[in-house]
UniProtKB/TrEMBL annotation:
This is Lipoprotein. Residues 28-74, 158-177 are annotated as: Disordered. Residues 28-58 have a biased composition (Low complexity). PROSITE patterns: PROKAR_LIPOPROTEIN.
Length: 195
């Protein structure tokens, strides 16, 4: 009789284990991936865990239009740091910069007044600082300049009047970045020129 009770106990344990395995196989497969990766199942829904990844993937210049055309890769402009600008060693009497609400500045250029020399500038593309230039010195970049650099053209179009007064007011503008492979991206922001 004791042997039969022991067999029943073992059969019950095996049945309970099989039931647990069956139920685990029917559950959300994302918990299996979590178990394999970290040893514990996540109790948060999958959608919640994806939201932070999307937010952290966004770069400062990602506000604005998406990249159109080209090889399908994104045009990503990063904000220039003070160190980036200092290391560029731009020369000129006066300068201009393009900024968005999320990134300031994205393009910085310097030039001399009444000069036939090109204005020199920098832009940070996917983490790399690259040089660009526009004809006509400072005067050539105050209204709707076009900057060119290796494999890229950046056009600034002033779209309105300044919202504030002063010697160097910022004006609403768009920056259109054209890449050599035919890709294009337009960002809304402000163009500001002066001392």
């Amino acid at each position: 009789m004791e042997l039969n009770q022991g067999k029943r106990y073992r059969i019950g344990v095996v049945a309970a284990s099989l039931l647990t395995l069956t139920l685990a196989g029917c559950s959300d497969s994302s918990s299996d991936a979590d178990d394999a990766a970290g040893g514990q199942a996540s109790s948060t829904p999958q959608a919640t865990t994806q939201e932070p990844a999307q937010a952290t993937a966004e770069r400062p210049s990602d506000a604005g239009g998406a990249t159109q055309g080209g090889d399908g890769s994104q045009i990503t402009l990063d904000a220039l740091t003070a160190s980036d600008i200092d290391e560029a060693n731009l020369s000129g009497e006066l300068g201009c910069q393009f900024s968005t609400e999320r990134a300031s500045p994205l393009l910085v250029a310097m030039g001399n007044v009444d000069s036939s020399s090109a204005a020199q500038g920098v832009v940070k593309v996917a983490g790399y600082v690259e040089r660009v230039s526009a004809p006509g010195g400072f005067d050539g970049m105050t209204d709707n300049p076009t900057f060119e650099g290796k494999g890229k053209t950046l056009s600034i179009e002033v779209t309105g009047e300044p919202s504030e007064g002063g010697e160097s007011p910022a004006r609403p503008a768009t920056l259109t970045y054209d890449r050599a492979d035919g890709a294009q991206r337009t960002l809304e922001g402000e163009w500001q020129c002066g001392p």
